[in-house]
Specification:
The structure holds two protein chains of two kinds. Chain A contains seven helices and 15 strands. Chain A is of the alpha/beta class. Chain B starts with a strand and ends with a helix. The chains are: A alpha/beta, B alpha+beta.
Chain lengths: ~280, ~350
């Protein structure tokens, strides 16, 4: 019988410094008997193990179309992530997963996609954005509204131009607090809604960010005419097991690790304490 | 099909000794005036004349601390060793019906598509010899929620006290094997004994049935979610965690690493949804920051969310939560309040 709690090894192939406190780790799964082939969907997460430090649930930032590696964008905030930031290329970490439902690819096929990300919330959305670019003909217009605290907190900034310059795509970026050499938008992410034309027609919004951002973004999207089903959010919770046992991510009758982390606003509205 | 025998009370230690020769027997033992489930080495240690233990035998299936695997922590090391499961089979002897029903609830959680080998392995290895309740205590309300005072399923052997003897019933081949360890101690049960058992169970059921209607309560929960009563209960909760640790149907666990001299273990240990850190996330964000939100979580999980997900209450009516609460939150009074709301 499979032991769901035992991680399997993955080797760090590359480390990219995104910001002063965030790195993107590119991992290669070492094929073991329990994991002959690591396959995941955009929006799923893994449990990253650092033996001796513990485990953290981290969403996958790469797209399944990028084979041979797995990217995790990790901010240094706690015991495990602090230890992970000390590692170098060729070091080994543990991985369990992938867990969770992932984004509803079938349902969003053919739609215009409005991504709204706050801070580290861009990581799971980036997985889907890259999936969309890998199957560009399957989707309509792509708009990304991204907000971070300061210019120094912007993640994946070298990719904005790649996404934004593509056909039928637009990227808008803002920061809460600007700096002397920042010439871009200043203000919370919702201020970007006024800077472009977003239509709810045949569109789906995909949102990830801190809880306070969810509340304001949902209001904006509803005002624009998005239905509750067309607002798709991915939630953060401190899942300790990833398989619906440990109880930490329970929300009403759901477990974020099994039934989520991706939910529509319609689903989340009825779950107490979700937003 | 249940089969029935009778066993004289003074022969119980002999039967236990016969079981000890082959199994690890966990049974209630009186220590410092209190009954505690523990490993016994002699049948004479077993104390079956108890109302209920303060702690259920949950820890023998979900230990308070458990090594999920061990490892070494040298750089580049990735050697994980899963501890071998205990080889010897066990018998949980004298477990109360509420605690058997609690295990049936935990089974739902730990089975499913992602099976938990640790818990399920112990469930497989351990037989249950249950002891029906003839004298439920004032704190018990198992009769109202289907947790007791007797059992129709979930046991291997069921004992019911009949004065100087026990009626002994089996519901499984494994139960029958336990009888067969000392067949000479048992005699075939008479019709009168079976009738006496039914009378005692009916009487106990009346004692253990309190004016609590689970369906009515579960039905009213949603409308009461924003009621100010939860604020008041939240203020009283001292976050000691006692109710969750003693609750036979609470299972939430944390996963932590412990390292000594380069040798590490990944442990799981009981956690508690009433503690502030339970839902704390990276960056100090906490979706259930207030005690009000947390006490509501515990109550709603047992009486509403679990019902929605698994189709049964997550409460067996043992009353341990009320018994242990330093803050004197009496759940029966909470039920009264919910019931009295329109």
């Amino acid at each position: 019988m499979k032991n769901w709690y035992v991680p399997y090894p993955a080797i760090i192939k590359a480390i990219k410094e995104e910001t002063y406190d965030t790195k993107t780790f590119s991992l290669a799964i070492q094929n073991g008997k329990h994991q002959p082939e690591f396959q995941y969907r955009s929006g799923q997460f893994v449990e990253v193990s650092l033996l001796g430090y513990g485990e953290s649930p981290i969403s996958v930032a790469s797209a399944p179309s990028e084979t041979g590696y797995l990217e995790l964008c990790v901010r240094r905030v706690g015991k495990v992530t602090e230890a992970l930031h000390q590692l170098s290329e060729k070091d080994v970490v543990g991985i369990r997963g992938p867990f969770g439902n992932g984004f509803p690819l079938k349902e969003i096929r053919g739609k215009n996609l409005v991504f709204v990300a706050g801070g580290l919330g861009l990581a799971p959305l980036r997985s889907l954005i890259n999936t969309v670019f890998a199957h560009r003909e399957d989707f309509g217009r792509l708009t990304l509204l991204y907000g971070a605290r300061t210019p120094n907190d912007l993640l994946f900034r070298d990719e904005f131009a790649v996404w934004g310059n593509a056909d039928n795509a637009e990227v808008l970026v803002t920061v809460d607090v600007g700096s002397r050499d920042w010439g871009g938008n200043v203000g919370v992410v919702t201020t970007l809604f006024a800077k472009t034309k977003i239509s709810a027609q045949n569109a789906v919004a995909l949102v990830c960010g801190p809880p306070i951002m969810f509340r304001f973004v949902i209001q904006e999207l509803l005002k624009l005419g998005f239905s509750e089903e067309a607002i798709i959010l991915t939630l953060e919770r401190h899942m300790k097991c990833g398989i619906g046992k440990c109880g930490h991510c329970n929300l009403g009758a759901k477990y974020v690790c099994l039934d989520g982390p991706v939910f529509s606003y319609k689903e989340l509205r009825s779950l107490p304490g979700a937003l | 099909m249940a089969l029935a025998w009778e066993l004289d009370k003074q022969k119980v230690p002999l039967w236990v000794n016969a079981l000890i020769s082959e199994f690890e027997v966990i049974a209630p033992v009186r220590m410092h005036g209190e009954e505690v489930f523990t490993l016994v080495s002699d049948g004479s240690q077993v104390a079956l004349d108890y109302v209920n233990t303060l702690a259920s035998p949950k820890e023998f299936f979900l230990p308070q601390f458990e090594t999920m695997f061990s490892f070494t922590t040298g750089r580049g090391d990735f050697d994980i060793e899963v501890p071998p499961g205990e080889e010897k089979s066990g018998v949980i002897f004298g477990i109360r019906p509420c605690d058997v029903n609690a295990l049936l609830i935990l089974d739902k959680v730990f089975s499913g598509d992602q099976k938990d080998n640790y818990y399920l392995g112990r469930r497989d290895r351990n037989a249950l010899v249950a002891l029906g309740c003839n004298q439920p205590s004032a704190r018990c309300f198992c009769g109202s929620v289907g947790g007791g005072p007797s059992l129709l399923e979930g046991f291997d052997v069921l004992l019911t006290e009949l004065g100087a003897s026990y009626l002994v019933e089996t519901a499984s081949a494994r139960g029958r094997q336990l009888i067969d360890k000392a067949p000479d101690l048992f005699r075939k049960a008479s019709g009168a004994s079976k009738r006496e058992k039914r009378r005692l169970v009916e009487r106990a059921k009346r004692l253990a049935t309190k004016p609590i209607d689970p369906l009515e309560i579960a039905g009213k929960m949603e409308a009461l979610f924003d009621n100010s009563k939860w604020v008041e209960l939240g203020k009283r909760c001292l976050q000691c965690g006692g109710c969750t640790y003693l609750c036979p149907t609470c299972w939430c666990f944390d996963v932590v690493d412990r390292v000594e001299n380069g040798n590490g273990e990944r442990l799981r240990c009981w956690d508690c949804c009433l503690l502030c850190g339970f839902t704390r996330m990276a960056g100090n964000l906490n979706p259930r920051e207030s005690t009000e939100a947390r006490i509501k979580q515990r109550f709603y999980h047992k009486w509403d969310y679990f019902v929605q997900r698994f189709g049964t209450l997550q409460c067996v009516g043992c009353g341990r939560c009320t018994e242990t609460a330093l803050c004197h939150i009496d759940w029966k009074k909470v039920f009264d309040w919910v019931t009295s709301e329109k």
